[in-house]
Task: inverse folding
């Protein structure tokens, strides 16, 4: 199977501190890969480097066999959609305008917005559950509402790869499940490869085919969910012991809260 993403020997430093150190992994076309690890592990930095939201790394990042630095910005945006945890600064745009920006890679510099673009934006807003907010200012939304608008803008790009940084952040349990269902549907129906960062080990195990675990900027695990859900493996990732229970209906192990006296 063809690789959608290939990362080899990737290292990155910020203000003299090594954030990522010699990270290598790949994502196949149409595959879902979760990235987990404790705070400060380098998870968000990894996604930003793949999306070329950050520069200055050492090593290789290839998207569909081509180095990310060899892509023109618009060309890369047609292949890779990146949804950060939040948007920085104040954006004087409505939700509808913000989501429409996701059509940027499909528009030429002097072209007008077409019916196809409007339909795509409406579909993305409907999928993400923000259609009712289309006329509202982006900076007037709650954290959870804004998170859904960011997801809608990424979906509107109709890219071959979705990079999602904690897609469940700021969302209540139902909205989290809705977001997961949307991403899984896009993966299944559009064949988009999905790489998502999460702090929820159970979500990582349920919603991915493979998992990459980082700690201190280094790879400490890469493999299947069944290989991850073992106390020795998770202890290596997080530096603590975990308790498990059998998931109803499947018997697969799930992490359960540990009593803290």
Result:
């Amino acid at each position: 199977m063809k690789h959608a993403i290939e990362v080899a020997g990737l290292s990155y430093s910020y203000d003299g501190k090594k954030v990522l150190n010699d990270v290598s992994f790949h994502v196949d076309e149409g595959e879902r890969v979760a990235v987990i690890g404790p705070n400060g592990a380098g998870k968000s930095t990894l996604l930003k480097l793949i999306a070329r939201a950050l520069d200055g790394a050492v090593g290789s990042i290839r998207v569909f066999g081509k180095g990310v630095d060899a892509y023109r910005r618009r060309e890369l945006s047609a292949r890779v959609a990146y949804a950060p945890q939040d948007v920085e600064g104040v954006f004087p745009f409505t939700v509808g305008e913000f989501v429409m920006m996701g059509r940027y890679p499909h528009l030429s510099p002097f072209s007008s917005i077409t019916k196809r673009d409007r339909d795509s934006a409406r579909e993305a807003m409907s999928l993400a559950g923000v259609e009712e907010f289309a006329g509202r200012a982006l900076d007037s939304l709650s954290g959870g509402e804004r998170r859904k608008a960011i997801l809608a803008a990424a979906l509107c790009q109709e890219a071959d790869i979705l990079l999602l940084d904690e897609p469940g952040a700021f969302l209540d349990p139902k909205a989290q499940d809705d977001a997961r269902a949307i991403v899984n549907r896009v993966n299944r129906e559009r064949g988009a490869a999905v790489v998502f960062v999460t702090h929820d080990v159970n979500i990582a195990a349920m919603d991915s085919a493979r998992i990459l675990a980082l700690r201190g900027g280094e790879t400490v695990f890469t493999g299947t969910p069944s290989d991850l859900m073992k106390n020795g493996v998770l202890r290596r990732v997080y530096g603590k012991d975990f308790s498990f229970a059998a998931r109803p209906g499947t018997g697969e192990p799930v992490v359960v809260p540990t009593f803290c006296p």
User: Anything to note?
Assistant: The longest strand covers residues 3-14. The two ends are 49 Å apart (CA to CA).
